Amino acid sequence: MKSQVQLKKIASNIENMRIRGAGKIARYAVLALQTVAEESKAKEEEAFIQDLRAASKRLLSTRPTAVSLANSIRYLMHRVNKARQEGASLEELRSVAVTSAKDFIRESGQAVERIGEIGSRRIQSGDVLMTHCQSNAAAAVMRRAWKDGKKFSVFVTETRPRFQGRKTAALLANDGIPVTIIVDGAARYFMNEVDKVIVGADAITANGALVNKIGTATIASLAHEARTQFIVASETYKFSPETAIGNLVTIEERNAAEVVPNSFLKSYPKISVRNPAFDVTPPEYIDLIVTERGIIPPQGAIMIIHELFGTIQPSELSEYQTYNATKE
Ligand code: RUB
């Protein structure tokens, strides 16, 4: 079945990071669900929903830290479940699923664009910026500011172990933005020259902490020490409702072979390697979070979560949880 092939392919490409970055992961996840909905051979409504649930389960297992993934699936499943409760037929459910996927992809693209627009107002000509990893949202801010005629330069950390910084550097350089790549460990060496650090988000917690690529928290503490502004660019579907009731965001640990070659590990079997993909930056180190709804201080994260998800009960943290504010 084409949809199964598509689901398998998208899920394994998220796992092996051919599809990466929290926003993109979310968009591909709903695209996979769209294909499953289009191709489902289910003969009745409940079986159709079960097909979507099974696909969601597979997608959710791919990258545990990306809250955007769970929220994008929730966005679609909430609408499908609501339609089912209202008595929708099989074909109506299919159409709700497909439309929801398309809506999410469109809204997500618009959110990144809007973040670029809003965030770019914080950038001034003459600024020296620093960024880490590769984030479409953070890049949107810098690219929009450059497009608007502001002149600035950017230090890009290479971002061990997967070197996503090279992708960011290439993207910005293609626009003509002056870019300097540095090793992650050189962040402090250059921090006193930097006016603003700008990064993306894998997740924002209820207390305004940022979960992002490993190394982000170190850079944030250096920025704090140097009194350099630390800006996060994040769509609101990266805000984690689970954290409002005390759950923690799971930090993904990846394969040791990303850090050292297997041959090294074989030669030194007693050496162990840890490879957490993300870390947590406390809200005290964050000056502002740029969302598509506007700029908030980290303390405002809980308000966004309440607007999006309402008051959260532990039993509601399933696909049924509502997205109050997303134009229902
Ligand atoms: C990517 C990363 C990015 C966020 C935000 O990690 O940490 O900063 O996902 O990206 P990985 P975006 O390479 O492990 O996926 O703004 O594009 O959603």
* Rg: 20 Å
Shape: globular
CATH topology of the largest domain: Rossmann fold
Mean pLDDT: 94
N-to-C span: 32 Å
Helix-strand category: alpha/beta
Number of helices: 11
Number of domains: 2
Q: Detail the poorly predicted runs.
A: 324-328
Report the CATH architecture of the largest domain. 3-Layer(aba) Sandwich
Order of neighbouring strands in the sheet with most strands: 3-2-1-4-7-9-10
| Proportion of beta-strand residues | 5-15%
List keywords for this structure.
about 325 residues, alpha/beta, Four Helix Bundle (Hemerythrin (Met), subunit A), 2 domains, 7-stranded mixed sheet, 3-stranded antiparallel sheet, 11 helices, about 45% helix, disordered C terminus, binds ribulose-1,5-diphosphate
List the helices and strands and how they pair.
Layout: H1 2-15, H2 22-39, H3 45-60, H4 67-85, H5 90-120, E1 128-131, H6 136-147, E2 153-157, H7 164-174, E3 179-182, H8 187-191, E4 196-199, E5 203-204, E6 210-213, H9 216-226, E7 229-233, H10 262-267, E8 278-281, E9 288-291, E10 294-296, H11 301-309
Parallel strand pairs: 1-2, 1-4, 2-3, 4-7, 7-9
Antiparallel strand pairs: 5-6, 6-8, 9-10
Bound molecules: ribulose-1,5-diphosphate (RUB).
Residues 20-24, 133, 135-137, 164, 200-202, 212-213, 277 line the site of ribulose-1,5-diphosphate.
Structural features, described:
It is a single chain. With 328 residues, this protein is of the alpha/beta class. The protein has two domains: 112 residues, translation initiation factor eif-2b, domain 1 (Four Helix Bundle (Hemerythrin (Met), subunit A)); 205 residues, Rossmann fold (3-Layer(aba) Sandwich), CATH 3.40.50.10470. Helices cover 46% and strands 12% of the residues. The longest helix has 31 residues. The C terminus is likely disordered. The structure holds ribulose-1,5-diphosphate (RUB).
